[in-house]
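Checklist before submission:
- one chain only
- standard amino acids only
- sequence pasted in full

Submission:
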Amino acid sequence: MMDILREARMKIEAGEYVNRLEESVNRMDDLDWQEHFLEKTRGNALYQKFIREGLTADVSAVNVQADALGVIHDLVIEAATNIAVADDIIWKIDVTEPLRRFFLAVRGSVWRISEGPPIQSPERFTPVDITLEYEWGQDALFSQSYIEDMPLAVLQRAIADCGQLLEEQLTTDIIALYDAIAEADLAGGANVDVAASGTLTWADLVNAWTTLKTEGFTADAAIIHPNEIADLWNDDKFINAFYFGDKADVARGVLGETYLGFKIVETDLMVDASDLVYLVDLDKAAVCTMRRDITTQPYEEKLYQGAISTRRYGLGTLRTEAICRLDVTP
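Returned file contents:
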């Protein structure tokens, strides 16, 4: 984390720093950079400490308030990015409206030319509405004395936790969305049992992949709890079918892809469903509509000052039959 601050200071001094927070806020209609950010920074003890001890001793320097806003936001985003798997387990799009309607095409059928088209043609689209039902926040608020006494590195850790917790919450919400789907609505019309209860094998993943194929979908990701990943590493057939590739990020839990085309995403946030595995066609199954991605701003509550980070989004299923659920229950 100190590297982020050091790197930002070097870029600021060289005139190369890109303030991602300012760019993001300026694209929003409901937040004002001057009113909601810059003005609140000047009296905020946490931001002023970052300026004095992390950026420059000259608190009146040009753009230093804006730079502090950007750097603290970078700490939050970096922590979220380091563990983020949400983009790997659901289709995510940015939205500007509180409701987004999706039109799902209904498969038609051909007709004989000699008979002509049917007099009454059915509707070819089914609408699905996704609303912004999720809004979460996390704070790094401290008393004046705490800010004065704590080393900057300790404060950075608390700020970074905001990003990590918000990212964990998004992943948890996505998994809960998948868990809530009734068995009858999944690919194959039911959970798919593994061959040997309590153990996940490569053959089970192939079976789930085939189940999706039969429904007309192609798996992009397999979402697996670490317990089941341990089973797979003991399966030679899986090891031979697996390769890391350029997109693998073991630290995040994205382990790579199989030759069948789906990547392996490991997350321990499937605590309540650690005996379940999901294979998902990401483009068809579900969607996350992101109205406000992680945004960090100065905040003051009674005798506490610091920063808060918020996020607002919607989640919904589109074609549940584009999801196959494997049951590994012993």
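Reviewer check: Residues 103 and 127 are 4 Å apart (CA to CA).
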